[in-house]
Amino acid sequence: MNSSRQPNILVRLWLGFWRSVTALRIGVFNVLFLIVLALIIGVLLRGGEQLIVESDTTLIVDPRGFLVEEYTGTPIERALNEALGEEVGETRLRDILSALDRAAQDDRITQVLLSTDDLIGVSPGVMLELQEAFAEFRNSGKPVIAYGGFMGQGQYFLASLADEVWLDSDGLVLLTGYGLYRQYFAEGLERLAVDANLIRVGEYKSAMEPFIRSDMSEEAREASTFLLGDLWQRYVEMTARNRGLPVAVMAELTEQLPRQLEQANGDGARAALEAGLVDRLVSRPELRAEMAQRGAPDDNGSYRNIGFMSYLAASQPQMRAPEGQVGVIVAQGAITEGVQPPGTIGADSTSRLIRQALHDDDIKAVVLRVDSGGGSAFASEIIRRELMALREAGKPVVVSFGNVAASGGYWIAMGADEIWAYPSTITGSIGIFGFFPTFQDTLAKIGVYSDGVGTTPLSDAMRPDREMSDAMERLLQSFIEHGYREFIGLVAEHRRMSVEEVDAVAQGRVWSGAQAQERGLVDKLGTLDDAIGSAARMASLGEDYRFTYVEPKLEPWQQFLTQMGARAILAAGFEASHPLLDLLPADFRSGLLADLTQVFNSTQGGRPGVMAHCLCEAPR
């Protein structure tokens, strides 16, 4: 008989936990070592040879992924992705605009090739920005050629900005129109026995509607139809004008694509050519030969060219002697509490940038560039108050709306001297909601129950394993209604409107920038450059001013190390804590988790998610 005994359960649990920690520590340090090694090798392979722009060079503008105001993540994260050969799915709008501005004055650049193949989409808002930038470049007399294979409506709009649009011989132009479609979770959550406790104010506040319905409400359908109709009409008008087509003809082309393709026997390229959507059909070898003939051949049988990002690194901007500067602060992504990396608006991190601009004597005015559907109402108010403090200190504050500036994205803008938007910005959504799901019935399905005692009716109020009490529901309803009154009261104060006037255009309804201006929610329509110019005039900077982006002073490697660990733990914990979600279809589950993540990431300290968020994004 074996007399040895196994250690008790606590000892075994501790040993297992310690082995896991040791394995995790070793794994993390191994990953960091490989990353640093890859960076060193990348630097050595690239070498230090300076890039020289030769004469008769073609500038290639080939945006990748989505057009954004700022990259998501820290500089080191992006460098690591590049070193490890991972694609960067984002292109900063400002980089395209800067490259075009410099190239217009650069005699070495003779033409531009606009490649659309790696672009995922263009949101309606930034179309005005791109249109003005390409129009300014073409005024220099240098031609712009657009080329691509498959062109959706985002890629095609970008191509329409060129002098000529060339389509691959096997290509296709597909203009499907704008749509806002969401998955509705009510029946699925009912099957999982999840209680979706939603408290909202606003007849049109449909952000979390999918959690309590299986279809779109009539209010949401009405508001979305009105918004999308305006955005699509503007798309058709701008694209028609770019292509020199009557608007009625362009509208008919977008509605008759199936018939046109049938008439071309399924040849999408020929159908696009016959419809006047493109000017020529060319293969890639033909493209290279034509560009070499128009510009200059290179030593590899192609044409002399440089990518726009390399061009920015190799060229120097023409500097003007400044009398003062306008500081531009980017607020992109969901609004959350705490310190957040670029691509997310953190109450503390964004407020820190505002204070940085406040204490910089060279910055005489500030433009807040907003591209956000909102988030935490509490965090939004913190940022608004920081902007008010900046304004009260004597520095003019102008807000420029990007693709989306809705709900909390509108809230943070209210403290500005002036609000600018694109005609196609998605804005408004003035309303808030509270959301706190409970899983007591879900747990009961596997025989897990919760019981106990407390000292007050609210002792169990914030437990996701217990049904929300009537007392907590009344508390939240009162709190949300107060938040809505505060929201519309602030809008009324800053926009010089009555509360009744604001309430009539609020109720959570979303508007385009042009519609918002008609209703007094926006001051002017224009580009970021227009907003910067207005801020400069408010600060009496004259015509000879510069603008600079206000960016974090925190060392990038510190941000990277902190965020990398936090994200890995959060992702692992979130997935592991919801095994029952594996019962759902993949698309349903991903949509559900995306919305829940927006809610949970916007609050801290175990509070219910009190949100000023439209959970919307610009159609592409």
- Indicate how many domains the architecture comprises: 2
Overall SS class? alpha/beta
Characterize the overall form. globular
Number of helical segments with 4 or more residues: 22
The CATH topology of the largest domain: 2-enoyl-CoA Hydratase, Chain A, domain 1
* Fraction of helical residues: 40-55%
For the sheet with most strands, the description reads: 8 strands, mixed
The CATH superfamily of the largest domain turns out to be 2-enoyl-CoA Hydratase, Chain A, domain 1
Top-tier CATH class of the largest domain:
Alpha Beta
How far apart are the first and last residues' alpha carbons, in Å?
73 Å
Q: Mean pLDDT, rounded to whole units? A: 83
Point out poorly predicted stretches. Answer: 557-585, 603-608
Tell me the number of strands.
Answer: 23
CATH architecture assignment name of the largest domain: Alpha-Beta Complex
> For the CA atoms, what is the radius of gyration?
27 Å
- The share of residues in extended strands comes to 15-25%
Description:
The protein has 620 residues and is of the alpha/beta class. It has two domains: 57-179 and 228-314, Alpha-Beta Complex (2-enoyl-CoA Hydratase, Chain A, domain 1), CATH 3.90.226.10; 325-449 and 467-557 and 592-613, 2-enoyl-CoA Hydratase, Chain A, domain 1 (Alpha-Beta Complex), CATH 3.90.226. Helices cover 45% and strands 19% of the residues. The strands form five sheets. Strands 11, 14, 16, 17, 18, 20, 21 and 22 form an eight-stranded mixed sheet that branches. It has a six-stranded parallel sheet with strand order 9-7-6-4-1-10, with helices on both faces. α5 links the parallel β6 (144-151) and β7 (164-173). The longest helix has 38 residues, at 9-46. It is globular, with a radius of gyration of 27 Å. The model is unreliable at 557-585 and 603-608 (pLDDT under 50). Belongs to the peptidase S49 family. Keywords: Hydrolase, Membrane, Protease, Serine protease, Transmembrane, Transmembrane helix. One of its GO terms (molecular function) is serine-type peptidase activity.
